[in-house]
Specification:
This protein has about 140 residues and is an all-alpha fold. The protein has a single domain, classed as Up-down Bundle (Four Helix Bundle (Hemerythrin (Met), subunit A)), CATH 1.20.120. The protein contains four helices and no strands. It starts with 13 loop residues before the first helix and ends with a helix. The mean pLDDT is about 90.
Length: about 140
Amino acid sequence: MLKDWSDAYRMGIADIDDQHQGFFDATHRLYDRILNCQGEHGVEEAIEYLRAYAARHFRAEEALMRRDGFPGLERHQRLHANFFEQLDQLVYDLRVYGPSQHLAERALEVAQDWLIDHIACEDQQYAERLRRDRG
């Protein structure tokens, strides 16, 4: 079951929160297409979005962490790099094998894991530190 955006995922940084919410929305669009057996028609758009999102979002997030002296920055950067590796594999598979329902399902799995493991857990560590420092 896909996670829905909620205030529990808010970091308190408007730009980052907007980007995270956009990621949730894109994941839900892909999920809807998969449910309607139209995943192959949405997978290319989804993968392109994920790549563009990751490039823009990671730059912004890492810049904030660097500015704030976040001690987990290097680990966070490695997690971002790992996500890019997964996206690169999806891009490769899309180019070699073309769009398919199966590839859409794999892209959804990558995105959903990111929602659960990264945005809901890892990014919240930074958000908690920000709240402590501001509070």
